[in-house]
Amino acid sequence: MDASLKAWRDEQKHLPEFMRDFHNCKRLFRGISEYIALDEDHPAKDVNWRQAHCYTIDVFLWFMARHGFTLQRSRAKQNFDSLDDVLDELDAERRKAMAALLAGGEA
Protein backbone atom coordinates (compact mmCIF):
# COMPACT_ATOMS: atom_id res chain seq x y z
CA MET A 1 0.00 0.00 0.00
CA ASP A 2 1.21 3.50 -0.81
CA ALA A 3 2.75 5.21 2.26
CA SER A 4 0.68 8.40 1.93
CA LEU A 5 -2.52 6.35 1.64
CA LYS A 6 -1.54 4.38 4.73
CA ALA A 7 -0.81 7.58 6.69
CA TRP A 8 -4.10 9.17 5.54
CA ARG A 9 -6.05 6.13 6.64
CA ASP A 10 -4.08 5.69 9.89
CA GLU A 11 -4.98 9.31 10.76
CA GLN A 12 -8.63 8.39 10.13
CA LYS A 13 -8.99 11.08 7.46
CA HIS A 14 -11.34 8.70 5.61
CA LEU A 15 -13.95 9.17 8.36
CA PRO A 16 -16.23 12.17 8.84
CA GLU A 17 -14.57 14.47 11.38
CA PHE A 18 -17.07 13.79 14.17
CA MET A 19 -16.46 10.03 13.86
CA ARG A 20 -12.70 10.36 14.39
CA ASP A 21 -13.26 10.81 18.11
CA PHE A 22 -13.78 7.45 19.81
CA HIS A 23 -16.32 8.77 22.33
CA ASN A 24 -18.44 10.45 19.64
CA CYS A 25 -18.33 7.28 17.57
CA LYS A 26 -19.27 5.15 20.58
CA ARG A 27 -22.23 7.48 21.26
CA LEU A 28 -23.31 7.17 17.62
CA PHE A 29 -23.24 3.37 17.54
CA ARG A 30 -24.88 3.00 20.94
CA GLY A 31 -27.61 5.36 19.71
CA ILE A 32 -28.06 3.40 16.49
CA SER A 33 -28.36 0.20 18.52
CA GLU A 34 -30.99 1.71 20.82
CA TYR A 35 -32.88 3.13 17.84
CA ILE A 36 -32.89 -0.23 16.04
CA ALA A 37 -34.02 -2.03 19.21
CA LEU A 38 -37.33 -0.16 18.93
CA ASP A 39 -38.12 -2.27 15.85
CA GLU A 40 -38.52 -5.93 16.90
CA ASP A 41 -38.32 -7.05 13.26
CA HIS A 42 -35.15 -5.17 12.32
CA PRO A 43 -32.58 -7.63 10.90
CA ALA A 44 -29.73 -6.02 12.89
CA LYS A 45 -31.54 -5.98 16.25
CA ASP A 46 -29.30 -8.73 17.65
CA VAL A 47 -26.04 -6.99 16.71
CA ASN A 48 -24.71 -5.10 19.71
CA TRP A 49 -23.29 -1.61 19.31
CA ARG A 50 -19.71 -2.73 20.00
CA GLN A 51 -19.81 -5.30 17.22
CA ALA A 52 -21.37 -2.80 14.83
CA HIS A 53 -18.83 -0.13 15.78
CA CYS A 54 -15.82 -2.42 15.34
CA TYR A 55 -17.01 -3.89 12.07
CA THR A 56 -18.09 -0.60 10.50
CA ILE A 57 -15.08 1.49 11.50
CA ASP A 58 -12.27 -1.05 11.74
CA VAL A 59 -13.25 -3.31 8.86
CA PHE A 60 -15.78 -1.92 6.37
CA LEU A 61 -14.85 1.78 6.18
CA TRP A 62 -11.13 0.99 6.61
CA PHE A 63 -11.30 -1.48 3.69
CA MET A 64 -13.37 0.85 1.50
CA ALA A 65 -10.96 3.76 2.13
CA ARG A 66 -8.10 1.71 0.74
CA HIS A 67 -10.09 1.50 -2.48
CA GLY A 68 -11.02 5.18 -2.67
CA PHE A 69 -14.44 5.25 -1.00
CA THR A 70 -15.32 7.44 1.98
CA LEU A 71 -18.39 8.13 4.07
CA GLN A 72 -19.65 11.67 3.61
CA ARG A 73 -22.71 13.78 4.24
CA SER A 74 -25.23 13.77 1.41
CA ARG A 75 -25.50 16.89 -0.72
CA ALA A 76 -29.08 16.05 -1.72
CA LYS A 77 -31.56 18.83 -1.05
CA GLN A 78 -33.66 16.90 1.48
CA ASN A 79 -35.10 17.68 4.88
CA PHE A 80 -32.87 15.23 6.78
CA ASP A 81 -33.45 14.44 10.46
CA SER A 82 -30.84 15.89 12.82
CA LEU A 83 -28.40 13.24 14.03
CA ASP A 84 -27.55 15.37 17.07
CA ASP A 85 -31.23 15.68 18.02
CA VAL A 86 -31.79 11.92 17.79
CA LEU A 87 -28.66 11.12 19.81
CA ASP A 88 -29.56 13.76 22.43
CA GLU A 89 -33.04 12.23 22.77
CA LEU A 90 -31.63 8.71 23.16
CA ASP A 91 -29.08 9.96 25.73
CA ALA A 92 -31.89 11.61 27.72
CA GLU A 93 -33.92 8.37 27.68
CA ARG A 94 -30.89 6.40 28.89
CA ARG A 95 -30.26 8.88 31.72
CA LYS A 96 -33.94 8.76 32.68
CA ALA A 97 -33.88 4.95 32.82
CA MET A 98 -30.68 4.97 34.90
CA ALA A 99 -32.16 7.52 37.33
CA ALA A 100 -35.25 5.34 37.73
CA LEU A 101 -33.10 2.29 38.48
CA LEU A 102 -31.02 4.18 41.02
CA ALA A 103 -34.19 5.46 42.67
CA GLY A 104 -35.40 1.87 43.10
CA GLY A 105 -38.00 1.97 40.35
CA GLU A 106 -38.17 0.25 37.00
CA ALA A 107 -36.78 1.66 33.80
Overview of the molecule:
By secondary structure, this protein is mainly α. The chain has a domain at 3-76. It has 4 helices and no strands. It has helices at 3-10, 22-37, 49-66, 83-102. Helix 2 crosses helix 3 and helix 2 packs across helix 4. The termini are far apart. The mean pLDDT is 91.
Distance between the amino and carboxyl termini = 50 Å
CA-atom Rg in angstroms? 17 Å
Largest sheet data: none
User: In terms of per-residue confidence, which ranges show pLDDT below 50 for 5 or more consecutive residues?
Assistant: none
Number of helices: 4
Mean pLDDT: 91
What key attributes describe this structure?
107 residues; mainly alpha; 4 helices; 58% helix; elongated
List the helices and strands and how they pair.
Elements: H1 3-10, H2 22-37, H3 49-66, H4 83-102
Helix pairs in contact: 2-3, 2-4
How would you summarize what this structure contains?
The chain is an all-alpha fold and about 110 residues long. It has helices at about 5-10, 20-35, 50-65, 85-100.
